[in-house]
Amino acid sequence: MSAYPVPDDRLSAYLDGELDTAERDAVDAYLRKSAEWRAERDEIAYARDALRGLPTREAPPGFWEGVLSPELTRARAKRRSRWPRIAAAASGVAVAAVVIASLVIPSRDRVTPRVPALTDSHAVRTSVSDEPVSHLATLSMVTPFRK
Amino acid sequence: MSVRSPRGLALAATAAALTALAPLVLAPEPAAPSQTGPGAQLLDQARRASEEQDFSGVLEVSWTDAGGEHRSDVFVRSANGVLALGDRPQVIVNGARRFVQGTDGWLAVWSQETASRVPSPSAKWRLAVRDGPIVAGRPTREVDATDRHSGAVRERVFLDEATTLLLRREQLDTRGRIVRAVGFTSIGEPAVGMFIGTLPGEAPQTPSRSRNRQPRVLEKVTAPFRAPGRAGDRFQLVGRYDEDDHTLHLFYSDGLFSVSVFEQKGELDPTGLPVGAESRTIAGREVRQYRTPGAVVQVWESGDVVYTTVSDAPLDQLDHVVADFTPHNNSALDRATNFVLGPFSW
User: Fold this and answer.
1) Of A44, B81, B232, B285, which one has the greatest count of Cβ atoms within 10 A?
2) Domain-embedded: residue A91
3) Using CA of residue B183, residue B184, residue B189, residue B190, what is the dihedral sign?
4) Listed ranges A126-130, B118-122, B263-267; the one with the highest mean pLDDT
5) 8 A C-beta contact, residue B184 and residue B168
């Protein structure tokens, strides 16, 4: 009878780094002293590397539906069918936000300066602190600008 | 302190030289030789003479715009401290009061005395006085206002040698060409009952009835409006007023010329503006510009405010004013606000 247990799935977990400290110490001890454990470890490592080296392929259409159970397939279809409704609801919220914003946020007033009147105001104010005749003369003139 | 070594003497001499030169190097503007002087005093006397002298005459106003040169005559008379301009007349001046003929009668557009906050013209302009030409049959004293930086004469004022009454003023562009002028072509003593040209020469009267349309003096300015204390090339803010239609009126002066900046909240609607505007781009803003008989008018918008500047100053003095009321860069908050609210601003 061997002094060591038969190699088990702890070796796979060991290679994946999933063992706790006590288990890892135990496997390390077996590997140091048991040729059987080491041979098993090497086989598992070879198989893992071979699998990881295989190229990735997309499953053909309908493959997963055939593999998965009918209940799960229906559940996935139901989940997909929610998106149009969510999109419609989001669109409605966005439209409502735009309408509310247009009502709540005041649009800017449109302003047309009364240019001839402002020109007169300037002349009047200037005439108070400067020589009045030369600045007020234009107020008594009829020009295309003042019509 | 005694400095004995050659190195110490050199350091001391250098420090003394730098100390002496510092005021010259650090001075931001050429120092004005005086706040007053003969030119400034003559201009100040001319401001009062038109209301203190009795006279009547005909003024010729000439100006140039994109359509060429224009001229117009205005009848003026002054007696007993009341000055009238226009045939009907259209404008009356009595002390600080100003009346303008409206469609439904006289409008009182100003009545308050203003504090003397206008800067002296000699602070910015070099004023030179000399004998002038004969204007409207009278000998004159000429005051030339020269740009201290360029050396170009920008304004010529001709004053009656006997009374200091302003007989003519000319504004020149940077190349010395007259772009605007107003001056008497004839002037004389008013004679009651006599006719001057085709108009009676009776003494003007202050209107007994008028409707009030005076601006209100403002103590402060609130956002989004702005009222910088200085604008352009040394124009100082000397008045803030609330005009009709919630229009803010800022009045700036450099002692010789003045600039009014009108601010209105909103977005510019150009459909109602007078025709004939020139299009310009100043400080990145599209500006509509008019040349009128007495002023240059510029209309533009920045942010949420529509600006209208009106000024009797030379055109090249005004671009800096536009720039001072136009933020160079929007802040991050402005950009974010514009991004969010932009789609709703129809």
Assistant:
1) B232
2) yes
3) negative
4) B263-267
5) yes
pLDDT band at B246 (very low <50, low <70, confident <90, very high): confident
CA distance A124 to chain B (A): 7
Q: Do the Cβ atoms of B299 and A114 come within 8 Å? A: no
Are B93 and A127 inside 8 Å of each other by CB? yes
Is residue B345 over pLDDT 50?
no
CATH of domain B216-337: 3.40.1000.20
* Average of per-residue pLDDT values in chain B: 82
Spell out a b/e string for B30-40, using b for 16 or more CB atoms within 10 Å of the CB, else e.
Answer: eebeeeebebb
Looking at chain A, which residue has its C-alpha nearest residue B304?
A108
Tell me whether residues A112 and B268 touch, CB distance under 8 A: yes
> A84 to chain B, minimum CA–CA distance in Å?
27
- Whose structure tokens read 């004053």? B159
pLDDT at residue number B2: 42
Q: What are phi and psi of A35, to 5 degrees?
A: -70, -30
Is cis: bond before B28, omega within 30 of 0? no
Contact B251/B237 with Cβ under 8 angstroms? yes
Fold of B38-212: outer membrane lipoprotein receptor (LolB), chain A (2.50.20)
What's the structural domain count of chain A?
Answer: 3
Of B50, B274, B295, the CB nearest to A122: B295
Domain span at residue A45 reads 10-52
A100 — contact with chain B (CB < 8 Å)?
no
Tokens read off for A109: 């007033």
Residue B98: which of A112, A127, A138 has the nearest Cβ? A127
Contact B83 A109 (CB under 8 A): no
Return the domain boundaries, chain B.
38-212, 216-337
Radius of gyration of chain B (CA): 25
Cβ separation A134–B166 shorter than 8 A: yes
Residue A84 sits at the chain B interface (C-beta within 8 Å) = no
Does the CB of A103 have a partner CB in chain B at under 8 Å? no
Q: Which residue has the tokens 């590397």?
A: A49
Cα of first residue to Cα of last residue in chain A, in angstroms, is 122
Which pLDDT score is estimated for B146? 95
Mean pLDDT for the stretch of residues A41-62: 72
Q: What is the pLDDT of residues B181-220, one digit of tens each?
A: 999 999 987 655 444 554 555 678 888 888 888 898 988 8
Whether B229 shows a pLDDT value over 80: the answer reads: yes
- The pLDDT of B261-287, averaged and rounded, is 91
